[in-house]
Amino acid sequence: MRVTIRVTVNGDERTAEVEPRDLLVHTLRDELGLTGTHVGCDTSSCGACTVHLDGEAVKSCTVLSVQADGHAVTTIEGLSGADGELHPLQTGFWEQHGLQCGFCTPGMIMAAADLLARNANPTEEEIRHGLEGNLCRCTGYHNIVKAVQQAAAVQAPEEVRA
Amino acid sequence: MIPEGFDYVRPASLDDAISALVDGGEDAKPLAGGHSLLPLMKLRFSAPSILVDLQGLPGLSGIQRENGTLRVGALTRHAELQEAGLGVISETAHKIADQQVRNRGTIGGSLAHGDPASDLPTLLLALDGSVTVQGPDGQRVIEAADLFEDYMSTSLRHGEILTEVRLPALEGFGGAYEKFTRRAEDWAMVGALAVVQGSDGVVSDVRVGLTHMASTPLRASAVEEALRGKPLDAESIAAAAEHAAEGTNPPPDGNATADYKRHLARVMTRRALTRAAGI
Amino acid sequence: MSSVGTSLKRKEDPRMITGRGNYTDDMTLPGMLHAEFVRSSEAHARITNIDISAAAARPGIIGVFTGEDLADVVAAMPMAWVPPGIEVNTPERWPLVKGEVNHVGDAIALVVGRSRGEVVDAAADVIVDYDPLPAVTDPESALEPGSPLVHEELGTNRSHEWSLGGGDVDAGFAAADVVVERRVVNHRVSGAPIEPRSAIADYRAGELTLWSSTQVPHFVRLFMSIVLGTSEDKVRVVAPDVGGGFGAKLQFCAEEVMVSWASRRLGRPVKWTETRSDHMATCHHGRDQVAYVRMGATREGKITALHVKIIADFGAYFGMLTPTIPSLGAFVMTGVYDIPAVKTDIVGVFTNKCMTDAIRGAGRPEATHMIEVCIDQLAAELDIDRLDLRRRNFIAADSFPHEVAYGIVYDSGNYEGTLARLLEHFDYEEFRAEQARLREQGVYRGIGFSTYTEICGLAPSRVTGPEGFGLQTGLWESAVVRVHPSGAVTVFTGTSGHGQGHDTVFAQLAADKLGVSPEVVEVVHGDTGTGPMGLGTYGSRSMAVGGESIARAADRVAEKCKEIVAHQLEAAPEDIEVADGTFRVRGTEKGMALAEISGIAHVRPELLPEGMEPALEEHAFYDPENFVFPFGAHACEVEVDVETGKVQVTRYLAVDDCGNPLNPMLIDGQVHGGITHGIGQAIYEQIRYDDAGQLVTGSLVDYALPTAAEVPSFVTDRTVTPSPVNSLGVKGIGEAGTIASSAAVVNAVIDALRPLGVGYMNMPCTPLRVWTAIQEAQR
Fold it and tell me: Which terminus of chain B is less hemmed in, N or C, by CB atoms within 10 Å?
């Protein structure tokens, strides 16, 4: 069985022909060429595949592409402005050395965007718990927390949600 | 990582959804947020022949308060419960997995899945809630005590769809959910959910539910009995919590022996009761 | 202005924070096929039949292959250690098994087809018949007479024995008033980079290109040419962006061989990307050593002798370096202490588990954990404060370079200095008072310390090579510094970064030498088709060996620039200095920028000094004279919920010394990650098999990597004791945090629990284990 789906991806309406079993992350990466969203596990544990579905962070390895039919997806490629201006979280991760190998980073940033949308001024503990669905093996999270704090400090809450 | 192949439909009405499940046979499964089912399918522990996506069904989402009862649509996501300001209900929802999971997982899906390690079944059981289901033979209400039959097995029949969850609002109760995990995002090793009502310093009503202490969620009836009518103080709570492991049959795993889980049940129960009582 | 020493923001980040990184699995080649392995469900069995017919008949399947098809794989998987005078039993390992599986996950067949979904479906249809054999998973049981043998043909589960020592150990123990004996278990862990391994092979017109998520592209090329029976010039290996390694990608993988072989056989590109389940079951694990430690000391707290017997569980096979790992620890078995007599006896053991090999620290975390836990045990035995006992045994700061008892020479150190700096950030007395107050309220906090050194910067080849330690390769490093006609610079390095920030710090290094901004310096690594051969990134070697190579090549370019400038401006080359972005005649305003110099070298070579070659490019190969020995002092505070046994790290402080800091931000980042890795092992992470050899921690649900919620923010600081080994004065820092931290955590847990009678425990300090330890102590 193959199904044609329509998904608004980073503001553009896209269509893809998928099998029902295709996961959203695979459609994004393999069909739509958006390889910034990564796969790090097979148990919905690591969060590397985090994207926004209708404005909220989800693990795109645990969403069927057919479930996203008719919905809007934002990936890391769509987070910066049309003019290429970096999102405050992207700037925060860069300036605070919030990434090393960079593999968890897109998912981490998308999860952090959801966190700031829910809580514009999180405490350190709230940031740490807010990112509990995203694993990083490189940074020890220290600078990720600082990156999110920096973004929170410069960003008005309504602008945070992509 | 890649599920076995299956067919997919997204019906627009409850009747169509029920028909699709009936027509699809035993291996047809309803799909809500997918956060219980899809992880099993990815590891090929589950291989449905057809998924009936419920997202197109009208009126299955949202929270309404009606005569002391909360009516929660089955497709209401954990994130909505988490932010609804509903005391122990919101606290429990907030303690499920991580935010991404809470943004997708639904209360109906979680309850229908019936995993004894998950949190909402304990909530439903502890609060004496019920679920409404619709099937080929019409609508029926299943009380929490009758819903969870065995490990990941509920009394929903094939073709039935869980449409609504009813939870008593429990005005005047204090509540708390103590979930013991190794890491923040983990499944409960053991959880204890307590709601307590005091009247003139005496426990007038108390309910305690336990997570992951058997193949289904459990009520810690012995604790409730031991505490009802007793002074609402630390001493009574501590004494009552000692009964928490009675009647349990905790499944051991690499992180916990059965004895350790029984011990944890007593500790978590005492802590949940203490916090619920505001002590 | 100097860039070195500043925390320059990373050059690699803009692509990574915008989703424009390029990891192996991100790539798709025209006509590319996908590969999936059929893996053993048994820990130990003979294979009686493999039925591929149903799988081969499935739609989209191009080929299904088993070990019998590998006639043109001309050599078994290599192991790179032949220690002089030591016999090592080495089991044969092929990319697909031939007749017998020896651990769960052993690769039995390869399925190649059009799409990922189709090959996964087909792999499930390959039917393997097993004749089960008894399995052994515990290394000490495996050494017992009558144990099942992992490899019948070897006649034993013992791979080898290896000893290292110095000084008179018997006399040392005879002089001891107290001997502390402990069994220190360093359990099995997974490297678990967040990017799973991935490889794409494209064999066309007799040449193979392999993109792989690896730390060691040059090793992979060399070994691939051997195994496939071709020459290196026909093999190009590229490591694109690599999503973390931690040693897990310091390997020559059977899967890399198989996709390359399949591409050669089928004439199309073939991609393989492992699932996390595959990674947990089949990517080499680390640690898994049991150490029986005897530490002798006088009543006054002077350590007189140390004897350690290590039983190292290698799993079923050898990877590239497997049997060397415990030996690396033996080199620093005495840690930061002046111990006159030491002996380490290593016994290597095969079991029916995945092989072990280098994981972040590779032998040194085990050694450091052992000595730092045991010195706390000795302090308790002697009733001497733990820090005082350490100070009484520190190698004195004025005695470097310092030769330790078994002949290794520590390059530089100041152990008192890092500990003193640590205590500037942490008031020990105040903590003790607070600890006592809290205990009265039922709150159990503990503090643990770890004062460590480690051996890194691998090289030097004369020590590590065939006549020395026995590695069958040199461990030098290479660099090319190329100045383009415009003055832009490309640096080629033989190291292969995977998150460390090489693009940035190597650019800083070269930029300063050449009087330009790091922005115009591009660093190229991880591609055997570009620069010269190099040895890769592991063993905290990239700066101390690779960085020094770059410095030397850049110095040579700068020398040539000075000659050109001197010639142009009619000055002496020795009067030319690099200042304010120009090569300037000292004491004058006269000078030339690199772009001008390069323009002459490329466009107007007739203006060069007589006999000088045109263009501006130099290379260097560097093989250091010695290792480097970073060191430091760490402190960990934990709070233990003594009712449940749950441990939370509440504070962590680290003072490290890696010589001159070239980019302090990157150093801090390495330390943060390293600490968390060690906390992970100390409390959360453990690879476990059941007695039948089934892996019970096969996913990230069961294998508990710490999340942000499990660790605090860290306090980090540095002292600077330059290494005399290299011109940069640098030491490695990539592994230091991991090497130091597990002992600090465990010591803290024990410190918290002493009032409850728990005087010793092994990690991981899981809730169950801590609770059990308390119960047993209270009994």
Answer: C
Contact B2 A115 (CB under 8 A): no
Which two tokens mark A87? 């999102």
Both tokens assigned to C519: 């922005």
Q: Give A2's contacts in chain C (Cβ within 8 Å).
A: none
CA dihedral C70, C76, C78, C83 (to 10 degrees): 180
User: What number is the average pLDDT over the span B90-109?
Assistant: 98
Q: How far apart are CA B264 and CA B253, in angstroms?
A: 14
Q: Is the pLDDT of residue A158 over 80?
A: no
Taking the CA of residue C699 and the nearest CA in chain A, the distance in Å comes to: 7
User: pLDDT over 90 for what percent of chain A?
Assistant: 93
Please give the share of chain B, as a percent, with pLDDT higher than 70. 100
Structure confidence at residue C446 (pLDDT)? 98
Nearest chain C alpha carbon to B258: C768
Residues of C in contact with B2 (CB under 8 A): 116-117, 120
Helix (H, G, I), strand (E, B) or coil at C67: helix
Would you state the structure tokens that stand for residue C450, as one six-digit string? 């770890």
On the question of pLDDT at A160 being above 50, the answer is no
pLDDT band at A156 (very low <50, low <70, confident <90, very high): low
Angle CA C576–C578–C579, to nearest 5: 115
Q: How far apart, in whole angstroms, are the C-alpha atoms of residue C75 and residue C254?
A: 12
B187 contact residues in C (CB cutoff 8 A) = 701
Say if the Cβ atoms of B8 and A64 lie within 8 Å.
yes
pTM for this structure?
0.98
Q: Is the per-residue pLDDT at A161 higher than 80?
A: no
Residue C20: closest C-alpha in chain A: A36
pLDDT tens digits for A10-55? 999 999 999 999 999 999 999 999 999 999 999 999 999 999 999 9
The predicted-structure confidence for C29-63, as pLDDT tens digits, reads as follows 999 999 999 999 999 999 999 999 999 999 999 99
Coil, helix or strand at residue C20: coil
The type of residue at B225 is: E
**Interface list for C 124-143 with B (CB within 8 A):** 124
Instruction: Report how far residue C738's alpha carbon sits from residue C245's, in angstroms, rounded to the nearest whole number.
Output: 14
Tell whether A67 is within 8 A of chain B (Cβ): yes
Contacts (Cβ under 8 Å, ≥6 apart) of A119:
A126, A130
Rg (CA), chain B: 19
Question: Rg of the Cα trace of chain C?
Answer: 27
d(CA A55, nearest CA chain B) in Å: 10
Whole-angstrom distance, CA of residue C212 vs CA of residue B52: 40
Nearest residue on chain B to A69, alpha-carbon basis: B10
Pairwise CA distance, residues C297 & C303, whole Å: 4
> From the candidates A9, A32, A96, A97, which should be mutated to test the interface with C, based on the most C CB atoms within 10 A?
A97
Euclidean distance between CA atoms C296 and C179, whole angstroms: 4
Q: What is the mean pLDDT of residues C627-652?
A: 98
Contact: C766, B182; criterion CB under 8 Å: yes
Q: Report ipTM (2 d.p.).
A: 0.97
Q: Would residue C146 be called left, alpha or beta, if left means φ above 0 and alpha means ψ between -120 and 50 degrees?
A: left
* Cross-chain Cβ contact C707/B183 below 8 Å: yes
CB distance C707–A35 less than 8 Å?
A: no
Virtual torsion, Cα B261, B263, B266, B267, nearest 10 deg = -100
Contacts of A46 in chain C (CB under 8 A): 194, 276, 700
Average pLDDT value for residue range A133-152: 98
Averaged pLDDT, C196-225: 98
Cβ(C239)–Cβ(C193) below 8 Å: no
With a CB cutoff of 8 Å and minimum separation 6, the contacts of C518 are C3, C8, C11, C504, C507, C508, C511
At C732, list the tokens: 């490695």
Would you state the structure tokens that stand for residue C642, as one six-digit string?
A: 């003594």
